Amino acid sequence: MPRVNLLPWRAERRKKNQRDFAFWALGAVGAAIGVTLILNLIMSGWISAQKARNQLLKDEIQGLDKQITEIVGLENQRERMRARMEIIEKLQRSRPEVVHLFDQLVRTLPDGVYLTSIKQSEKRLEFKGIAQSSTRVSAFMRNIDASDWMDKPELEVVETKKDSALGSEFTLFASQVGVTLPGEEAEE
Fold it and tell me: Which of 43, 54, 60, 147 is the most buried (most CB within 10 A)?
């Protein structure tokens, strides 16, 4: 049998295997780097798209916040206007009451009773005056109680002064009553 020296062939084959391994290893590393770069680009695209959506949402939220602020301001303005309208309507309704009140005051005032001052605080009336006698003050109170525009007379003071030629000085309180018209609710 002839002797064949296979060492050079094995050495060449080992070198070829090492070159192939290095080539495939570099190819694998290159492919890994390529895949990593591609995935990085895809992820960067997704991230930038999400950031763009987030920014759009932030801009829309800011716009809605401005609109909400405007709406709240308009609601406050509407409430102020509504309160003003209610005050104006109340004043419009109460305007003729003063005329009726003075008319009733003239009708309820008996002879011999003279008023020196009249004060009104909301619905409470204060009458100060001079009467020829206590009986006339009582008649005035009965007339107030029977009136449609005044109610609940309360006598605070009746003073008979010795030097007063006219009679007794008195202080009387009453409540103003508003007559409700058809379609209106009674205010208490």
Answer: 147
